[in-house]
Amino acid sequence: MSKPAKGTGVAIRKRSRVPGVMITQYVEELPPGFTTPDFIRKPIALTIQEGKMAFFKAVVNGYPVPEVSWGRNKGDLSNPTKYVSRYDEMNKEYILEIPNVDSDQADTYKCIVINQFGRAICTAALNVIEVGFKKREPAPKSDPEEFRKMLKKTVVKRRQKQTKEGEIDPRFWEVLLSAAKKDYERICQEYGVTDFRWMLKKLNLKKKEREAEQLKYVEKIHSMKQIEVKTDGTAEFELDMKLKDANSQIFLYKDGEMLDYGDGTDDATKHNMQKFGETYLFSIRDVGPEDAGLYQVDVEEANMFSTSLTLPDVKFNNMLKDSKVVEGQDAMFECALSDPVPQITWCANDISVEHGDKYDIRVSKDKQVHKLTVKKCTKDDKGVYTAIAGLRSSQGTLIVEDDPNAHGKGADELARRLSEEKDRLQREKDEVARRAQAEKDEAARKAQAERDEAARRAAEQDKAARRAQAERDEAVRKAQAERDEAARKAQEAQDEAARRAQAEQDEATRRAQAARDEAARKALEEQNEAAKRAQAVKDEAARKAREEQNEAARRAQAEKDEAARKAREEQDEAAKRAQAKKDEAARKAREEQDEAAKRAQAEKDEAARKAREEQDEAARRAQAEKDEAARKAQEEQDEAAKRAQAKKDEAARKAREEQNEAARRTQAEKDEAARKAREEQDEAARRAQAEKDEAARKAREEQDEAAKRAKAEKDEAARKAREEQDEAAKRAKAEKDEAARKAQKEQDEAARRAQAEKDEAARKAQEEQDEAARRAQAEKDEAARKAKAEQEAAERMAAMAAGKGGGQNGSGESSIGDGNEGDGTGKNRKGGDGNLRDGKGDGYDLDRSGGDGSGDKAKKRVRVGELVPNSIIDHGVHFLNGLSDTAANVGESAELSCKINSEDKTGLWYKGGKKLESKDGLTIVKDGANHKLIINDCQERDAGKYKFEVEGRKSEATLIVQDPPKIDVDTLSKFSEPVIVKAGENASFKLPFSGKEPIKIQWFKEDEELLQGHGVKIEKSSAHTRLLLAKCQRKDTGEIKIKIKNEFATVEATSKLIILDRPTPPQGPVEIVESSLSAIEFKWRPPKDDGGCPLTNYNLERQQLGRNTWTKIGDIPGQPTYRDTNIDCGRKYCYRIRAKNSEGFSDVMTTTDIAAGTLAFPGSPAPPKIVSAFKDCINLTWVPPSITGGGSIIGYNLEKRKKGSNFWSQANPKDDPIRDKKYAVKDVIEGAEYEFRVCAINTCGPGELSGPSECAIARDPKKPPGKVKDLKITGSSYTSLSLSWTKPTEVKGEEDEAKGYFVEIRPADQHEWSRYNTNTVIQTSFTVVGLKSMAMYWVRVIATNEGGEGLPQSFDNYIIAMPPPVKPKFTDKKMKSFMVVKAGNTVRVSVSFEASPLPDITWLKDGVPVAKHVTITNFEKGSQLFIYTSELSDTGIYTVNVKNMVGQDTFSIEIRVTDDPKPPGPVELEQNVHGTVTLSWTPSPDEKRDNHLHYMVMKRDSVKQTWRTVVDRLFNNKFTVINILPGREYKFRVFAKNDIGLSEPSVSPVWGTTKQREKFTYTMPVSRTLDFQAPPKFIVSLKLHTAPPGYECYMSCAATGNPTPHITWYHNNVSLNTNPNYYITNVCGVCSLLILKVGPKDMGEYTVVAESPLGHDECSTKLIVK
């Protein structure tokens, strides 16, 4: 390792020409010929996937040759298997290779270059992308005592998808789905993705999938902001989304691990979420390194948003500095970081800022230097600016001072004031928008509070309902317990009575009677107690139940109640449905229990009756057995009760386990289990009770009856309590629903008002912002272009200064070297590093004047005459439409056609290289510019490739000749005729065809393919096919189809097969038309199948019931009906019917027995209809019944009743039936409401009554309503119109209430009104659709009711079908304002706008209408300019003007049509001064037509053998190249350049000189003291400049003097040193001025003044703009 010079103790830091490199110099002055180390090319940062090889490369220089070493921040490079350092001799590169990169090797690497005079250091970051998520390291072990402290709350961890080797990290897609488009490139670079096309395609698919998942839970999601660190140490990100279900759960994850978050009210909570309307703000307090990672927001199971928080561990090498600027100037803040960071956060007064019109944010190539430029500072921009990188930040203060020269700036002052006024208006707009937003947020907050209050009240009501439900359940349970207790006490009384009866029968009887009385008394007391307890069940039921039950029952009940409470809280809605089922099940259970008790009581009574007949002796002998049986029965009863209780507890426990485990089982299942348990318990108790009753039936008679009465009274009390509880719950639910409805209504109304106010304010603010943004867009583009030009000029000047040559070359010139950074074309505008040691270098023309380097002013080539317009419009013959491939069938004609751009040219047709002429079936047609070749009667030999050629231009196409299957028309017609055969015969189908083989033939019957075999035979050949069907049956009737297919097409033919056979039997059921005393008439349905031929008649036979013979009636005509008049009254007859066709008779259909002369009443008519109603009469009509009962209808009876009454009275006289089917009822009371029904009467009597009619009120008809009020338009479009109005006022006796409305419209050019809605509308609003755009209509609304239509209400003026007026404005913010097109290509310019009504669109070119060859296409929201083939004359500024009655808007685009430039003429070489060569050439032919044409000169010498750019953007035809060295051969190339590119080069002859060696003599000069002070003097003066508008202008001169003079530039005697529109430099005496974009205001005199204490000097020039 080289060491610093001994004894220096100096460390001078300085910057390198390469950004990001720091040089430390160890000596104060470098010895001649020695340099400090430096980087020519430094290592660059890498982002690479894990497992691949990474390498850093560096190229260094310095003398003596420095040594290079590598290092890293967090480790060493001593492991030779992981780090390989080598030197590439060929490329002179120092390389550090890292094979098989691991995630642990991600770090910042250093390259250290050192020699004895200094040291240079630069850094480069290595980012490693892990393949999939790595498992976490195991937690460190700790003492058992600390185990409780290690316990953490269980969290849900999202399952991350593991990636395979080489796959993209899944976090890449998570971040990319939620990122803005401007961040795509940065994210891809971080994750090592280079295939952007694939990325965008896959990203669109993933977005669609995620949107489909999001739509399940949210209605919309927008305004997503990425996470960023704030100045107070918190990190925030937010998004706007509208949930479909407000109860949906929102989860926050970090790196797949779910996080708990608070609501922002607790300062101790790390993660918080705050909701403001639809905005969700997530924040992280006290951000630390452990908070870095991927954060995700999910709603239920769908991901909504992902953002990555990156906290690089960097430090600020250079902190922000305070800046003080004059108002109107730009202010810049700059900071340097220790490690590369792609992007940092900038804040202005604690508010983050982004790159845009106001702020310019730039990052150096090494990602370490970050700059923020505040453009055109105003007073509002002053404050504190902060740069945040990771967890560190730096602050700087901006101070904006008043401009002291503001009073002398004139137009600039006016512009500044206009800008301030615009900013003030913008701030006012922003304030209005902010207030509107605040009002919206306040309204949303109030609405939310109201919703929360309503929800709270609803929750309280739900709690009250649950308490009522619990009390009701407790009452039921208590009643059941009381019944059980009464039964138990009765049993004890029975046992006591049986014991006493054992000693003495009489005493037993007496005591049994006493026991019965005691039991009755106790039962009565229990009944009263139960009634009291049921009355106070709401307050005391739970306490008494817990006292009476044992401890085990209390625990079980408590657990059951707790489980039921939790289940009801979790599933309120399910509990309601389940409760209904439970109540129904309980009711059925009680009914079954009561029924069982009744049956048991009946059996007991019967047993008691039999027992009393037994003798007393038998009773005494059986007493002992009875006691034993009673004891066993009691034990069995107790055991059964225990088993039932255990089963009940087990069922309850299972129900609780199922509810707590998954919360999926409903309340109905739990109640079902409880019901089964109660049924088992009741069944066991019933059996036990029956056995006990059998043993002591005499003692239980009276007691059972008393217990039954007590039970009934208890049940009644419990039922009343339940009814009261149910009624209270219903009232509570109704109050809750009403409160929720009102709250929802108030909330919706508040939200609607807030939304309307917000939309209105946002619309106005948006319109104003759009207008301001449109005006500012031009200023922004202009400022961006100037900034870019300034940056390029600064880079070029920096390269020029860094690569300058050895100072003055002795001829009065200042030459700048041509170093290694030139790219050969001059596009990067960079020079080289020069060679200071020999004082020589390649020339560079500073002022682009083409000077010869002799110090004299070189004259710039001045073009003679004006630029002439393009007169060359003929580009030769070319095709407008070329030939296209064609297909034709054999025997048909084929046509090939093309179109060229000239009607005078004639071309030739070829096939296979052979010229074609109009003969042998070929016809060649020329119709102007259209050329056709027609081939008649195509055959296979005509297929092939055809070519049309005209003046060297060719077009080819292929003709394909097809031979599809064909069927002759006559043959097809014959085949289509149906084939008719009789059943059992054979059927045959034959079809000839033609076509190219191979051919596939398929036969189908009823779309089912027929295959060979089973009575089917298919014959095939190349010319015909045949189908043979053997022994056909009637079921074979159907459609026969054939398909013939080859490689070209498929043809089909269809025929029909008809099989003749006997018909099927006639169909029933038989319908009796008449069955009277004189005739029987009936009808039936025809056979389902007529056998393939029409039916001729039916054959009938008759049999009288009770006889064995059938009487032939004979054949009747083909109608399926018969009337038999030869009958006997009261007899029954049966008929047999057969159908007949030409093939024979069908099978027989037998009717049922038909009675003759029996009573048959008519059916019921339809309900009567109300025709009209008056106060003294109601008119009705009805329809006769469809069933007449076998006879004719002789009249009707009409009945009426008042609505709500059950009494019907006959309206017509009792003995006078109504003959007609209408009637006027006059026996009515005015104002009463009536219903009517009618019945028909035939010879047998009255039939069934009809249903009741609609209600009719006996009152006079209503009066028509009046006019509607407040008719207005609520919305409109080009095809629809929305109306609203107010209901007309009701005036008693004159205008009644309106029941509906009609809307009528009339076009302005017509006189008749048309009614739009045929049915009345009830609402007071209506939308008319289907209108013609911009048509004029008269509109009116008519109210109507039962009394008729009222007077129409119309508008005072006609209405135009159009949306609300909108001022035209262009909506596409990305429209280009400049376009370069190559001549001959298509030009397409599309603009989008919004305007209402439809505007007039005008396109202009340079202020005049566009030419005829320009196609303009206009549509509703846009317009398009289209030039099919552009020409040079199409160059110009195109302006589109969109105008309607509201206003207008204009947009301009400059289109430059040019072509590849033609090369310049021959290059001539001449030497006027030793060491220089002057090149001259003939101008390019395109110079007069293209004012942007310029030249570029390149050279190559015999030593370097590479072409290097000498000069670019040269506007004359002569240039002098300096630094021509003797002994070398030179070649020169001259290119013509324009906006399209370069021309072919014009190459000069070889230029060579001979190097003469002379004897060198050196005479030691006499030492003397010199005075180096000198007054200022210009050694190179300014030159006259002429520049076209819009281009750059570069002026330069050279001045000397000691001390160094102060340089000041003046334009028309106004100083330019502080004017930001001019880029001024002074490097080593070379004074330069750069004007980025020359305009008319830049014309005039320019003066440079050099001043020092010894004097001053000046020089001047003029700038001409044309």
Question: What report would you give on this structure?
Answer:
There is one protein chain. By secondary structure, the chain is α+β, with helices and mostly antiparallel strands. It is built from 13 helices and 98 strands. Strands 1, 2, 4, 6, 9 and 10 form a six-stranded mixed β-sheet that branches. Strands 49, 50, 52, 53, 54 and 55 form a six-stranded antiparallel β-sheet that branches. Strands 66, 67, 69, 70, 71 and 72 form a six-stranded antiparallel β-sheet that branches. Residues 132-166 and 803-873 have low confidence and may be disordered.
From the structure above, extract its key features:
single chain; 1666 residues; alpha+beta; six-stranded mixed sheet; 26% helix
List the helices and strands and how they pair.
Elements (H helix, E strand, L loop, with lengths): L11 E4 L6 E4 L9 E7 L4 E4 L4 E10 L3 E6 L11 E5 L4 E6 L8 E9 L2 E12 L17 H4 L19 H8 L6 H8 L4 H19 L3 E12 L5 E9 L6 E5 L2 E3 L11 E6 L2 E6 L8 E7 L2 E8 L6 E3 L4 E4 L4 E7 L7 E4 L2 E3 L5 E5 L5 E6 L8 E7 L2 E10 L9 H93 L1 H31 L1 H12 L2 H20 L1 H42 L2 H47 L4 H29 L1 H106 L1 E5 L5 E3 L62 E3 L4 E4 L4 E7 L7 E4 L2 E2 L6 E6 L2 E6 L8 E7 L2 E10 L6 H8 L2 E4 L4 E6 L7 E6 L2 E2 L6 E5 L3 E6 L8 E8 L4 E11 L6 E9 L4 E6 L11 E8 L6 E7 L3 E4 L7 E10 L2 E2 L3 E2 L3 E2 L13 E5 L4 E4 L13 E8 L6 E2 L11 E4 L7 E10 L2 E5 L6 E2 L11 E8 L3 E7 L13 E8 L6 E2 ...
Parallel strand pairs: 4-10, 20-27, 31-38, 39-46, 74-81, 91-98
Antiparallel strand pairs: 1-2, 2-10, 3-5, 5-8, 6-9, 7-8, 9-10, 11-12, 12-16, 13-14, 13-17, 15-16, 17-18, 19-21, 21-25, 22-23, 22-26, 24-25, 26-27, 28-29, 30-32, 32-36, 33-34, 33-37, 35-36, 37-38, 40-44, 41-42, 41-45, 43-44, 45-46, 47-48, 48-51, 49-50, 49-52, 52-53, 52-54, 52-55, 56-57, 57-60, ...
